[in-house]
Amino acid sequence: MPCILALDQGTSSSRAIVFDATGEALANAQLEFRQSYPEPGRVEHDPVEIWHTQLACAREALARAGLAASDVVAIGIANQRETTVLWNRSTGAPLAPAIVWQDRRTVVHCDALRAAGHAGLIRARSGLELDAYFSATKLAWLLDNIPDARHQAEAGELAFGTIDSWLVWQLTGGRRHVTDLSNASRTMLFDIHRQCWSDDLLALFDIPRAVLPKVVASSGVLGETDPALFGAPIPIGGLAGDQQAATFGQACLSPGMAKNTYGTGCFLTLNTGQQPVESTQRLLTTPGWRIGARTDYLLEGSVFIGGAVVQWLRDGLGLIERAADIEALAASVPDSGGAVLVPAFAGLGAPWWDGHARGTLLGLTRGVGKARIARAALEAIALQTVDLVSAMQRDGAAPLLELRVDGGASRNDLLMQIQADLLGVPVVRPRQTETTALGAAFLAGLAVGLWRGLDELAGLWRAERRFDPTGSADWRASRLAEWHRAVERARGWAAP
Ligand SMILES: Nc1ncnc2c1ncn2[C@@H]1O[C@H](COP(=O)(O)OP(=O)(O)O)[C@@H](O)[C@H]1O
Ligand SMILES: O=P(O)(O)OC[C@H](O)CO
After folding, report:
1. Protein residue closest via CA to atom 26 of ligand 1
2. What does pTM read for this prediction?
3. CATH number among 3.30.420.40, 3.30.360.10, 3.40.50.360, 3.60.60.10, domain 3-243
4. pLDDT at 92
5. By percentage, how much of the chain surpasses pLDDT 90?
6. 258: which strand partners?
7. Could you tell me the sign of the dihedral formed by the alpha carbons of 170, 83, 299, 276, in that order?
8. In the 8-state DSSP scheme, what is residue 146?
9. At which positions is glycerol bound (predicted)?
10. Residue 346: is its pLDDT beyond 90?
11. Is the CB of residue 264 below 6 angstroms from any atom belonging to ligand 2?
12. Residue ID of nearest Cα to ligand 2 atom 9
């Protein structure tokens, strides 16, 4: 039976899943890799470790499925976005650790660009909010801080890429230096309207064109793997940023459909059809995927700390042993007892975009113990999501009929119920919650004719559980008002 091998290179782990033609997962493998925090606000990954863990997972998933390379009709890749790698084209060696999307070292560069009045041009060209989150200032930082890098870049000796480009480079033995439209659009160097690298943005960020990858469609065979890697070459047919891939894997294929992914961060995306919609609410306008000549666009709200707040309770505070333990702990109390946690550990993303915000825990009394803090942490994940949905509605989106959910923290039933209650909208979890990998598989399978079109893919999506909202509109409004008072206190805390 023909299969697709999907690679999901995430912030916390590399994963590989083998899917059959019905969209069933036959086998998977996952490896965590090192997170490096060399200074406050800095987050780095080792690109070589990313590649090695990703390759090991791919081989392991194939072995567990009992398949050979010849059984795999295509590989699909989805990846953590924005994370920036710079490598030498001759040796293939990275010049420095990858600067991860959460890294805040370039906040000052962004502040200077904002003060100089460039935020409007950046938004007009890229659809993005001027922020250290995106690749442009990270790449500029590498070029400015690695000795001789700028000179080598201008001489065409260096390659820049987000993780998709890096993986394709490795998979093809250095033969292909490409990125897809959805990943390119997150660099802050790409004109989403003309669908090409923007001369204006390259000039603004002082990036030499010679480092850039070629931009390709999200679905389409872009090359094949080096035969030495899997024993035979495999076509690479799909490439997309993980949030766009997850939107595709959730079959949010028509305008008005939305998904939220609860991973390290939370990423809410709304399909807005074949035209980019400009946000007045500081949401991001981003291409979802390009298939042939057709591009579908999304509005996106990005929250930097989602499931990561649970990691903090586990690793930072030691309140729980495993992430999943938060559910029983939070369920042991009926509410947070007035405690409100704003997890602005990496500043605040949409809709606030405040790089100087920092985490706050408010409303503490003697009655607040670890269970209520755990509950406040889950509520914070859900409340940040409510702010994104509200912003989309102020941008003119129709009321949501349902919110499709996925990501590691979506396994938490209590969190999903809290989400439905605070949103006032049903939350629907699919049978296959590995939607990022599934989306990458769908894109790759379309490219090689395993599936015929979007209708067939939509037919493969299945709900597992629906969480209907409880609680009154008044209750929701008062919880939101309390949350916003807390957000105001977190904002601007670390401003110089
Ligand atoms: N049962 C759970 N309840 C709440 N959070 C969870 C649970 N299980 C995992 N998480 C959180 O989900 C995140 C992992 O989700 P995942 O989708 O694998 O992330 P990523 O794709 O960003 O690497 C971690 O931050 C972890 O703390
Ligand atoms: O790896 P994830 O799932 O946390 O996703 C990261 C996003 O792509 C960052 O924009």
Report:
1. 307
2. 0.93
3. 3.30.420.40
4. 95
5. 93
6. 270
7. negative
8. S
9. 81-82, 133, 242-243
10. no
11. yes
12. 81
